[in-house]
Amino acid sequence: MLAASAASLAPAATSALRLPRKIRLGLIDVEGHLGEVLKPLPQLPDVEVVSIAHPDAAVADRQKKNPRLAAARHYTDYRRMLDAEELDVVSVCNANGPRAQAILACLEHKVHIIAEKPLALTRGDLDKIRTNLHKAGTKLSTLLPMRFSPPYLALKQIASSGAIGEIINITAQKSYKAGNRAPWMKKQETYGGTIPWIGIHMIDLMRFASGREMTEAFSYRAQIKAPPGIGEMENTTGSVFRLDNQGVATLHMDYCRPESAPTHGDDRLRLAGTKGVLEYMAATGVTLLEEGRQPEKIGKLPEEGAVFLDFLDHVYNAKPTALPFSDIYQANLVTIAAQEAAVSGKVVKV
Q1: pLDDT at 291
Q2: What is the pLDDT of residues 253-294, one digit of tens each?
Q3: Domain of 277: which CATH number?
Q4: What residue numbers bound the domain in which 50 lies?
Q5: What's the predicted TM-score (pTM) here?
Q6: Which residue, of 115, 142, 169, is where some domain finishes?
Q7: Domain annotation covers residue 1
Q8: What is the pLDDT of residues 307-335, one digit of tens each?
Q9: Do 174 and 287 share a structural domain?
Q10: Do 137 and 158 have their domain in common?
């Protein structure tokens, strides 16, 4: 029953999604999690990729090897693309630093936007996006695909059922292989920090799964004996958050996962409540420990959803979204507060 209820939190990503008319999609850059936009295209017969904006024609040509992008026109400047094309939706997957300006340019053209995260690196830019989104009357989503993953959907539903009582402690982890990162990630000016880049995933999931808000943040960040492939990226961070019920949440992240590890990442989320503990890690799955009961591994999980399908279904078929802008804004705001704390060395109010 738990898994069945959780399935309603996100649409399944296994069948074709029909839209009421043809939708013209433009791509601004091809960095980050663009695959979350391109992978579902076979399930979107009504979506046509009409243009790609990227300074390097060779990069655009590589994208055109995908049959769904073969006819897309190339622009070296996204502003020219926005002026020249009659677009319905724009995917914004550029570097973190200039992303807010690209989103604001899209809003000037009153198009719907699916953007890489974070939306912005400063409170000022984030608030400009929120204000201009309201003025434009369009919709915006962001690439937080983990919210649509079966284990986290299950955590959300079980926690919402009250099975573990009031949640007073949250612990989260992201540990990745360092690898050889893209050039824009190796410079802080365009990268913006490890907390904004990967921390926002878990900050969103901590809020989503627990139902709790974060009111204050304090963080540390450092680069220590980092491999050459990551440039200026921090390879270790730690953040502590005060919850709205005076509880505590912690998030630790690193780029220390060995290259020999079987998976690229090791993500973990643990929710501790007044009646029990609920957690997920890949090694053990979703597990529930309630007072007076034996530990339980949740075997049947909800169906996986897809962030781009969810967005289009919401915009064009008026379906409820599993990722409302209010959540997107708050996850970005908490992330910015955590980064501000790391820079200032002070506790920062969200």
Answers
A1: 87
A2: 999 999 999 999 999 999 999 999 999 999 999 999 998 899
A3: 3.30.360.10
A4: 11-142
A5: 0.94
A6: 142
A7: no
A8: 999 999 999 999 999 999 999 999 999 99
A9: yes
A10: no
pLDDT of residue 14: 65
Q: Which of 124, 142, 160 is the last residue of a domain?
A: 142
Is there a contact between 350 and 337 (Cβ–Cβ < 8 Å)? Answer: yes
Total domain count, the chain: 2
| Owner of token pair 């901590």 | 206
Tokens at residue 8, please?
């309603």
Q: Tokens at residue 317, please?
A: 């078929």
**What is residue 87's predicted lDDT score, i.e. its pLDDT?**
98
- Extract the residue ranges of the chain whose pLDDT is less than 70: 1-14
